[in-house]
Amino acid sequence: MKLFNIHTHRLNIPNSLFNAERDINSLSPNQYFSIGLHPWYLYDKWEEKWSEFRNYVTNQNCLAIGEAGFDRLRGPKLSIQKAAFEEQVNTAKIEGIPLILHCVKGHDLLLEYLKNTSSHPQIIWHGWNLKTHLAEQLLPFAVSFSFGEKILDSKSNASQWLKNCPKDRIFFETDNSEEEIDQIYQAASLILGLSVEDLQRQVIQNWNRISSKKLK
């Protein structure tokens, strides 16, 4: 069974979306990937790096922009983070592909952007583990949620939101953990009372709804 992994840092894992910012030259020919400027690694001349990365976006296996976003704990000043984020969301919108969001203590910054932008791309908040009321504030916008190893803890914020999250906004990932994607799907299956097969179909359907680059 092919269980789609929306976000991983483990290279050349089949049916997964590899975060390629730091390993773009190590990809196998059939590897799905995302490319973006992570807020941790921004610098004053980030425009030059993005100009280089922008060339990879039209590759048929580049399914998303990211990780991109905001981090108040690590990274340059917020003005730089905001500028880099807006450049990347504009590219995602033009290409019709989602943006994989990294967001640490930046929920308000994302909301500010969403409320002040008339049109934005589909955004997938990866590794969601915030409280339910914060997730609900994002539902009026084109924001989905990707759940990772935190749902293995039944008391986590991630587990609580997964129970209530609209099914058409759900994705699953391993990120940089050692867990396998089937463990994440199995945990979600128990939480939602759905079979792994149903979740597999739901995730593919969700992806194909929000992206111009379809999965089979």
UniProtKB/TrEMBL annotation:
InterPro entries in the cross-refs: Metal_Hydrolase (IPR032466), TatD-like (IPR001130)
Record-level Gene Ontology MF annotations: hydrolase activity, acting on ester bonds; metal ion binding
GO CC, any one term: cytosol
Keyword Metal-binding tagged: yes
Top-level taxon in the UniProt lineage: Bacteria
Metal-binding listed as a keyword: yes
Gene3D superfamilies the UniProt entry points to: Metal-dependent hydrolases
Descriptive protein name: Mg-dependent DNase
